Amino acid sequence: MELIQYALDNLGLLLDRTIEHIALVGVAVGLATLTGVPIGIAITKNERLAKAVLYVASIIVTIPSIALFGIMIPILSIIGHGIGYVPAVIAVLLYSQLPIIRNTYTAINNVDPALREAARGIGMSQNQRLRQVEIPLAIPIIMAGVRTAVVLNIGVMAIAAYIGAGGLGTFISRGISQSDPRQLIVGAVAVSLLAIIVDYSLLALQKRLTPRGMERAATTA
Amino acid sequence: MIRLDNLTKVFDTPKGAVTAADHISMEVPAGEICILLGPSGCGKTTTLKMINRIVRPTSGKVFIDGEDTSALDTQELRRNLGYVIQQIGLFPNMTIEENITAVPRLLGWDKDRYKRRARELMDMIALDADAFLKRYPSELSGGQQQRIGVARALAADPPVMLMDEPFGAIDPINRAVIQDEFLKMQQELKKTIMFVSHDIDEAIKMGNRIAIFREGKLVQYSPPDDLLAAPRNAFVESFLGEDRALKRLNLVKVRELASDEIGVVRPEDTLATALERIEGFGYQNAILMINDKRQPVGIIHRSVARTTSGYCRDHFQSVPTVVSLDDDLRKVASLMFAYDMTWMPCVDDEGRVCGQITQRAITHHLGSRYRATQSSGPGDDTGTPTPSAAEE
Ligand SMILES: Nc1ncnc2c1ncn2[C@@H]1O[C@H](COP(=O)(O)OP(=O)(O)O)[C@@H](O)[C@H]1O
Ligand SMILES: [Mg+2]
Question: Would you say residue A90 lies in a domain?
């Protein structure tokens, strides 16, 4: 009861923090998609390079977020952004690479060889094949990677409150430092709810972006 | 016209070099269908794919209309060769219209033109444009998808078509329908077609020429009737099957063997006249009775004519069956067995009796080709034929 009362009393702040949180994750995963998808496509041309890139990306994910922030503070301090928005976005950007690159790589590699041959056989160039056939077919799986990245990093972003990036994590960090369970629990529940809601919204978006003829294939995948 | 000149492909595999196609030389005249036929793994697909460079030849050349294709840009070349792959390979993310206009769009046709072309193509493959153009491949049956695959290859009206087991993925009944439709289309389009098959019956039905492959080598290249009448060696013979003489029946039309001489009687003739004619023509058991329009109306049996007196119109039995001049001998033979007859009256398009076909004529036709090839055919029945021997 007390919790709901607290949440209602601070509704404005809660909303502000939520929007802040979404914006941070959104910008970071957006940037990660812009880099990860081209990388994922590029490495389909070279198996050894693909192995190396995926290896590095998985190593990055194993670094605890607190440690990653710690590493970035001295480096980014050089340009005056040791704490705050910039390191938070960079961390999420890095963590997002694995799901996005891996899903893109797998999706493009798994395009039915018969379709690729048909596309070559009718005289499509490599670029035309990518744009007209391979990427449209890969979209459901690429989107699934983006979703994974978003959900994963909504959690990571909560920790970024410790380096002053803002977001819903501020409730949690204050809750801990002020020994105030209300703030702690409201923050934690808000982060979880946000992750669930965003996951479903992105799933809906993924379905809309799936080419119509592939709906059947996409739902079984 | 397609000409292959010593076309060879050697694949480097972990287990060593595999020669998938070994100095293949052959020529497909313009407007003809050439079937590449042989057991699985004999190099048919590899040979076909070297023509549009999906597989890069190790050596040898491909000429199309006399032009060496190795000088052409690969994508340019492919857009001028219709290609139908065995797995159909329609793009699931595109509508039927987008699929069949893929090549015209690559070629930069304007929208009006390729939309019009899409409708033309749907007419050609006998699918309703309004019902199908906006649908997706996954919503179509296998046979419909296969037709769309053919339409996609025909879209920019390429003079040459490459087809890799194009009708392989459908049930036998639908396959026969599509084969017939395709042959009808080909009569108008007159494409030069290289067509891979592993089905001897399909090859005989579809091919103007058949190229038999074995382990990467071209063993025999002949028109279907020559192939069946004179297989070059034991391998070809066994591949064609022991019933190959019967398979030839598919290839010959009644018109070619029918005799226009047929003894008949009229309803007003007497049975005595009938008997006279039966004996005059040397018929074994019966004679045909026709009306004023020369339509077959009955049969007078010899036994009846001999033992009874009166007029034919009172003593005939119904005509078991007739054949038309465009029927093939397979149908005729089947009817002869079914009705226990050694001859059949033939009728023209208006249903008028115009002759007869006999079992003797059929067996004689099949036998004469065998006798001819046995006395003058190639002496070496077992040796490997040289490339020049394969060029008939
Ligand atoms: N890409 C490839 N790499 C290695 N070997 C191949 C390749 N493609 C075909 N082959 C081999 O070449 C031979 C001929 O194959 P193919 O032309 O597909 O035969 P067909 O179409 O007559 O069944 C087979 O032995 C096959 O294993
Ligand atoms: Mg094959």
Answer: yes
